[in-house]
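Progress against Task 2.4 (sequence-to-structure conversion) is shown through the following example record, which the project officer requested during the mid-term review.
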Amino acid sequence: MRPKRNDWLLVTHMLEAVGLIEQFTAGIEAENFFTNELIKSGTAYQLQIIGEAVSHLNPVTKDAYPGVAWRDIKAMRNILAHEYWSVDFLQIWKIVQLDLPALKETLTLMMESLPKPQTPNGTQS
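Structure tokens generated for the chain above:
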């Protein structure tokens, strides 16, 4: 049985995706990013995961963090998934370099305030 999605799990998934993007892009310059299809693809896929998780977050949770461009994150996911032929990897690189650190900081703060999911025996996981 699949665990029910909740905001804590969704934020966990987003933080994991941010961590993978950080691993993929650590120590590389923009030129290496643009010429390495594996890094570009992995980064794009993790951004899709972040965007999909955002689309399932409770609106009340998102409203509590108005400084995050939730709509833009979801819009990027839609471009990556449905308009893959028009992806601008310069924009992706800028997101990784400029926007991801602040998102990671906010997601980390969110983790501290969101309730952890309950296990079947009623305890927090």
